[in-house]
Amino acid sequence: MSDSRPLSLPLTLAVLALVSVGSAHSEESSLPLGQTSFATYREETRQWLEQARDFQSPNHVVELDWNAPQEWRPEQPTSRGILLVHGLGDSPWSFSDLGPSLAKQGFLVRTLLLPGHGSKPADLLNTRLEEWRQLLREQAAVLAEEVPHIYLGGFSTGANLVLHYAYEHPDVEGLLLFSPAFKSNTAYDWLPSLISWAKPWLRAPSPDRPTQTPVRYLNVPTNAFAQFYRSSVTVRAKLNSGRYDKPVLLVVAQHDSVLDTAHIRDTFTQRFTHPASRLVWYGTADLEASLERRILTRSDALPERRISQFSHMGVLFSPHNPLYGEQGTQRICWNGQDDLGMAGCEAGESVWYSDWGYRVAGKYHARLTYNPYFDWQNEVMVEVLNAAQHSTASLTSSHSSR
Description:
Blueprint: H1 8-21, H2 38-52, H3 60-67, E1 71-72, E2 80-85, H4 98-104, E3 107-112, H5 129-146, E4 149-155, H6 157-168, E5 172-178, H7 191-195, H8 222-241, E6 248-253, H9 261-271, E7 278-282, H10 287-290, E8 295-298, H11 339-346, E9 352-354, E10 365-367, H12 374-400
Parallel strand pairs: 2-3, 2-4, 4-5, 5-6, 6-7, 7-8, 9-10
Antiparallel strand pairs: 1-3
């Protein structure tokens, strides 16, 4: 990222923040860390959620199930395990479709709940990137005690966390990176790091707007954006330090409303060099990308399904997901459109689907929360993971024959 930005802008904004807001919030998240087994980690996290969560429905048990760390075990004993890490403002529900699919492929699958998440947005006011990294280190070590072959997967900020960890831990044999947040599409993503102490919320919570749903936050504190930015800077430093030569699956929606997707595509071709690595690109193929056989393109404009563009979050979910699928109960109407469109969407009127902020005359758009290509994407995922397994077996055989 360029350092050519003028100094006067951040200083001016910081002063305005001080004048308008005053001192930062001092509330802290206390989600427990330091467990030496996944069962203990999950139980203590669930107990914490029971006390700390701002429940969104009368069914607290179901909400706890959706937000607590999860585990899926394969039918047969396995030697492969994978940890899945959600993104900023999300929860383990992000992997409610992916987890069972991986278990069917013979993986011991576990999801994590990042500190500050699953309870209420205010619990992110003082959460630090180091806590997220600590949790990943702890539970990766726990998983490694149970299975010899370790894989990691992450969504958005979670993808940054697992890639950073994988650069420092060569025992990780393969990665799944969904909407990886290596670089945002705004030139001012550094700003929250400067003003978070003075302006706790970029958009102050309001009774007119919901702040969370049963499975995710709709608004997060400034500090949360600052920690995301730190994760993106440090993972880009890792990428700049050298190629990552293990098999990796990247999944990216070209019109993702929060990411610099051209940068991510270029990063794939330059840094993820294993011949079995794949970039699933939902959008249109350009000439340069079409020459890269490892890039698999599918159109994200599907008018027969009232889909204008794919979204940041939708790549993770099956059309059959009970909350986010085609008939899901969690329609996200707040999608950057005007109040009339939002009111019609909330009233159940027929809408189109897109990423955040997409507008076209004569149509109203809710967020696209599922992936029509989910089954095909899983097939690509399995090919990449199997290639990772074969690469490890070949390397082990090579070493043992010396």
